[in-house]
Amino acid sequence: MGSVRKASAWLGLVDDNDERYYDDEYAEGPEPGDSWVTNPRVRVADEAAQDQGTRIATVTPDGFRDARGIGELFRDGIPVIVNLTAMEPSDAKRVVDFAAGLTFGLRGSIERVATRVFLLTPADYQVVSGEPISRANGGFFNQS
């Protein structure tokens, strides 16, 4: 298959009838016990993070019913980034109220990272600002 035909097939302009590039082993997907990882270093890093307890969860709930999953992760001591951009405003407000109560009850903290994105951190975590100390204290910043 020529490079133009490959590009056209990739863009969906022509049908890709060239079956010689497909392998049945990969077409079936991973085995049930395997995790699908392209880079083996990612799997090693994931296992090390689970052993050391240095994981951060990201959750994008569809509705208030997903708040339980946020609570279970946070209760296990995992910091949670909650992205509420895909939710209705009324449900998003309920999730924020739930998260605020959750962090208060477990002595954690809640911080707004961006519009409708919040970071919930357990009590033993500290959020450090990315601002340099000199800029945070109003230090010299003139670059001319």
Briefly say what this structure is.
The chain has 144 residues and is an alpha+beta fold. It has six helices and four strands, in the order H-H-H-E-H-E-H-E-E-H.
Describe the structure.
There is one protein chain. The chain is of the alpha+beta class. Helices cover 39% and strands 12% of the residues. The protein has six helices and four strands. Strands 1-2-4-3 form a four-stranded mixed beta sheet, covered by helices on one side. Helix 4 (67-75) links the parallel strand 1 and strand 2 (80-83). Helix 4 packs parallel to helix 5 (89-105). The longest helix has 17 residues, at 89-105. The radius of gyration is 23 Å and the shape is elongated. The protein starts with a helix and ends in an 8-residue tail after the last helix. Residues 23-27 have low confidence and may be disordered.
